Structures are given as C-alpha cells and as structure tokens.
C-alpha cells in the first residue's frame, strides 16, 4: 500500500496508529497464502484495532458456522460448529450486515446457554464479503460497552482486506492442486509409456541383429525405427525427471568422472550429424553424478542441433580452477532477450511447439541438474545469431 493510500485511510477514519495497523495487516494478508496464516493475521489485527478481549474467525459452511480460530483472554468456541440460524455470526452472514450488541444477556439472537460459559458481555460481529458472506470476524469484550461507529468501520475495513486475501488463498490452492494433478499425470503417463517403448526397442534391435549378416534392405528402415524409438524413450525419461524434480525425489550419486570422455560418448550418439564438432583435447576430471551430467550434455546438444538450422555446432569441454566448464554453441535461430529467462522454466518455450516439437523440459532440466551439482548455466544469444550455453561445475 502506497503512502498516499495510507494518508487517505488516515483522513477517512480519523486515525493514526490504527491506520498503521491496517496497513501492516494488509501487508501480512498479502503474504498469507493459506487459511491458517490468513486467520492468524486477521484475529491479531482485529484484537489490536478495537482493544478487544477476544476475537473469533468464523467460517460459513452451508447451514452451519465453524468457529475456526480465536485469540482471547479465555477459551471461546474454537473448533465448534453451530447452526447458522442459532448463532450471532450466522445472523450477521445471513443478513449481510454488522451486529453490535452492548449486552449479550438482553439480546434474543444470542444463544445464552453457550455464552454463559464465557467472559463475553458485549460484542461486534462483521461479515466478510457482505455481498456473499463466506466468513465473519467477531470481537468480544469482558465488560459491557457498545462498539463505536469508528470500531465498526475499522473491522469492516479489515474484513474487506481479509476478503481479498481469502480469494487469493483460494487461487493459490487451486493452482497448487492443478500443478499436483499435472505432475501426477506426467508420472503415470511416463511410466505407462516407458514399458511398451522398451519392449519395442528390444524387438527392433533383435531384428537388426538377426538381419545383419544378410545385409537386408530392411536394415535402414529398422535403423530409423530404432532412432525414433530412442528419441521417444529420451522424451519419456524427461517426463519422469520432471515429476521427480517436482517431488524433490532426486538423489545424486557422485563418482569420479572424465567430463571430456562423457562428452565424446554423448556426441557419438548423434552420429550422422555432420555439423557437430567436439573440442575436448584433454581429460577433465571431477566428482559428479554421471546421469545428471549425461542429461545436461544430451539436452544441450540436442537443443543446439534442433535449433541450429544445419549450421556448425560446437561442444567444448575445458578445465578451470576448481572445476570444469562445458560450452555448447550453435549458429541457428537464436533466442530473443525477452525469452531468455523463460526458456529455463518448466514447459517454457522460445518458439511454438508446432514448429520444433518437444515438451519444453530440456533447458529446465539442464538448469535443475546444474544447480543440483552445485553449478550454474548461462546463456548468450541474439535472434539470428545462434546461442551459447555455458555450464560451470565445481570439481
């Protein structure tokens, strides 16, 4: 909230310290992305704003009301549920208006047997989102007093802030659920696809071995099928890795490795790609996770070949003080500066999927792998001038 808004609140409510309390509550509510945090902020702020001896946060659940949270000098009704028609918080929500009661013993809307067990003598109840109440904020005093118009406005203002926070929390919850469902789908889909793909590749390879002595004309066809089967398998593995990363289930298995030798292995998988050049003249040793390094290399090389427009692609491995540097450079379409941060996000793309295919996971996995290994990945690129990805790794 800006300074001008604070001054406006001050003028409207005729307040100083109370306006500061509301501003602080607004900031805290903006950061509260779940219901318990949100209720805690609201009840503390409400009690401070009107010097109440107790505050409750009441949720509407159809025909009943749920006293979900409280902050009071003695226990009230936290955790209990009551029929909305038989409760003052329910009355405030049903009638969509605040309720001020100076003496609870003299008001017929009060369930006296319930209140008789508490310290409450007077109260103020304000619905949250009056146009369609979803909750209520109750303020209580141990001595008989009538809440002033200013106190009513203060709690109404707090209720408005709380209403916005409730909507935000609901959106966050929906987003988390959507992400969880997506990740569950990725995990199940990748698992179900991997089994038939593995069997298919085994049959293709068996057929190639059987036909090899006869130099069968089917060999080129089988080679193409095997190539595409391998590509599909890699895509499925990326889906598996995506779901594992989200679940924080990645376990590193470091071992002594030669990064130059591993780079050579990966480049050899792209046999038939004449534009691919490897510069790794000397061993570059370190202690790393082989599968993660392999994935970094394959994703970067595959990305460079895909977007390199058939021009030269350079893969360079070099030692550096305390670690190693891997560089993959293409001379293809390049990446616009506006997209350079986004492409490292999961499912992030710099070009339409229909143009080049893929899931938009490769570079996200590169960054995740590099950071998991304690390293970094950097990008230099411009449209039409290719891209240079540099991964630095501690030894």
Q: What is the string of helix and strand elements?
A: HHHEEEHEHEEHHEHEEHEEHHEE
Instruction: Kindly name the structural category.
Output: alpha+beta
What are the segments in which pLDDT stays under 50 over at least 5 consecutive residues? 352-359
What portion of the residues fall into strands of 2 or more residues? 15-25%
The helix tally amounts to 11
Overall pLDDT, averaged? Answer: 85
Gross morphology is elongated
Main sheet attributes: strand count, strand direction, barrel closure: 6 strands, antiparallel
Strand order of the largest sheet: 3-2-1-6-5-4
Percent helix, as a range, is 40-55%
The N- and C-terminal alpha carbons lie at a distance of 47 Å
From the alpha carbons, calculate the radius of gyration and give it in angstroms.
32 Å
Task: Give the strand tally.
Answer: 13
Written description of the protein model:
Helix 2 packs antiparallel against helix 3 and helix 8 crosses helix 9 (290-307). The protein has helices at residues 3-13, 17-31, 35-50, 88-95, 112-115, 149-211, 219-246, 259-268, 290-307, 353-356, 362-372; strands at 54-61, 64-72, 81-83, 99-101, 122-128, 135-141, 254-258, 276-279, 285-289, 313-320, 323-330, 376-381, 387-394. Strands 3-2-1-6-5-4 form a six-stranded antiparallel sheet, sandwiched between helices. Strands 8-10-11-13-12 form a five-stranded mixed sheet, covered by helices on one side. A two-stranded antiparallel ribbon has the order 7-9. The two termini are 47 Å apart. The protein is elongated and about 100 Å long. It is α+β, with helices and mostly antiparallel strands and 395 residues long. It has eleven helices and 13 strands. A hairpin with an 8-residue loop joins strand 2 (64-72) and strand 3 (81-83). It is 48% helix and 21% strand.
């Amino acid at each position: 909230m800006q300074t001008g808004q604070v001054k406006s609140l001050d003028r409207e409510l005729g307040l100083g310290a109370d306006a500061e309390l509301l501003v602080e509550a607004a900031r805290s509510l903006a950061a509260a992305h779940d219901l318990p945090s949100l209720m805690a902020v609201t009840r503390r702020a409400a009690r401070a704003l009107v010097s109440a001896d107790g505050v409750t946060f009441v949720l509407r659940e159809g025909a009943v009301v749920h006293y979900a949270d409280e902050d009071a000098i003695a226990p009230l009704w936290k955790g209990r549920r009551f029929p909305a028609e038989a409760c003052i918080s329910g009355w405030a929500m049903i009638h969509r208006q605040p309720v001020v009661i100076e003496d609870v013993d003299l008001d017929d809307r009060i369930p006296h047997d319930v209140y008789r067990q508490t310290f409450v003598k007077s109260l103020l109840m304000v619905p949250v989102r009056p146009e369609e109440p979803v909750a209520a904020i109750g303020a209580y005093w141990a001595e008989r007093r009538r809440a002033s118009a200013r106190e009513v406005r203060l709690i109404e203002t707090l209720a408005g802030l709380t209403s916005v926070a409730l909507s935000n929390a609901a959106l966050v919850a929906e987003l988390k659920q959507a992400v969880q469902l997506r990740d569950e789908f990725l995990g199940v889909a990748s698992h179900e696809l991997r089994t038939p793909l593995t069997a298919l590749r085994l049959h293709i390879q068996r057929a190639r071995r059987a036909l090899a002595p006869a130099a069968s004309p089917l060999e080129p066809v089988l080679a193409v099928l095997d190539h595409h089967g391998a590509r599909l398998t890699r895509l499925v593995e990326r889906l598996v890795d995506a779901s594992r990363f989200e679940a924080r289930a990645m376990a590193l298995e470091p071992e002594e490795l030669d990064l130059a030798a591993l780079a050579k292995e990966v480049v050899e998988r792209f046999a038939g790609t004449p534009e691919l050049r490897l510069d790794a003249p000397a061993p570059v040793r370190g202690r790393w996770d082989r599968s993660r390094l392999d994935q970094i290399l394959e994703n970067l090389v595959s990305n460079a070949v895909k977007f390199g427009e058939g021009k030269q692609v350079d893969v360079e491995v070099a030692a550096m003080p305390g670690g190693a540097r891997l560089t993959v450079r293409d001379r293809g379409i390049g990446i616009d500066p506006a997209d350079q941060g986004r492409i490292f996000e999961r499912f992030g793309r710099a070009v339409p999927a229909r143009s080049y295919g893929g899931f938009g996971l490769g570079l996200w996995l590169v960054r995740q792998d590099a950071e998991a290994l304690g390293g970094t990945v950097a990008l230099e690129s411009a449209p039409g001038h290719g891209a240079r990805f540099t991964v630095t790794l501690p030894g």
